[in-house]
Amino acid sequence: MGNLKIDYAYMGEQALERLGYTGKLVNSSLPVAWCMLATGINRIFTRDHFRELCFRMAVTLEKTDLMEEWFAHGRLMAYKVNGITYRLQPEELVAHFGLEVVDDLDDLQPWERFLGSLSFNMQTAVLIGQFENMSLLPFDGQDQESVSETIDRLMPEVTEELMKRASVFADDLLRNVPEELFATQSKKIAGKQKELAKRREVVLKLPKFNLSLLSDEMVMQCLDTFYMPEFAESVKNDPEAFAEHGEPMIYLAWLWANGFIISDDYGTRPVEGFYIDDEKYELEDGGVNLMVTIEEHNMDELVPLLKGLF
After folding, report:
1. Could you tell me if 189 and 252 lie in one domain?
2. Are residues 186 and 217 in the same domain?
3. What is the pTM of this model?
4. pLDDT below 70 — which residues of the chain?
């Protein structure tokens, strides 16, 4: 994931005026950003982005009253900021065309990655919301256990029927959006798209991790470095255990050995162009901290082995 930020830089001046933007965060931006983070939509620069956001909102929030409120009353979800309840209006959502919340190469997560990351994405959205005293889901408490229980309870069962309903919801909501909104992109959006194209060219030249090119001896050396001998042997011989405890750690060790892991104010993460499934690196007490994982698995010891591979 790239840098998180509610970035108004690519929105049109008229939209900002409608939102009452004065240089400070607008309340209605919080639920929009929450939904973008939860649904893996990094920016809303095109009609397709906007529709996909609406579609994924309906899927993600299936067990809330989102779709029912829309079809019955023409309004969207309720949310709280500093304890005060608001209701997101469709025109407020539309006004956020041009918003970026994650500066990532991809405009949105591919569908399969979105489904696989849904719980983690929602956790991230909730955490960012808490920083701004904003809540969108009905929590019994603000501690991590309550948040996790609520998210588990609200996780949708993604069926063909749900996707059909979500598609109807997205199309119905889109009917309220004037087509000229999408036809008149700001020059700033065009500039950002050119910047992204250049960044993607750089990424194409990066090496690709290929576990199959490692010898059995190299794989075993990695596992012996990560784990106690008995557990390392069991991981090597059990495909399911290897998929959970072997390959993800070898990949992370390779990234680390080749300088593809960075740490800054946003945390520790792969450099642009490399993707990790955060759920595969979740710590025993919850959360993800790649530096802790790197240190606990002695990955510094594998730098001579893995540096320069591929």
Report:
1. no
2. no
3. 0.86
4. 1-2, 140-142
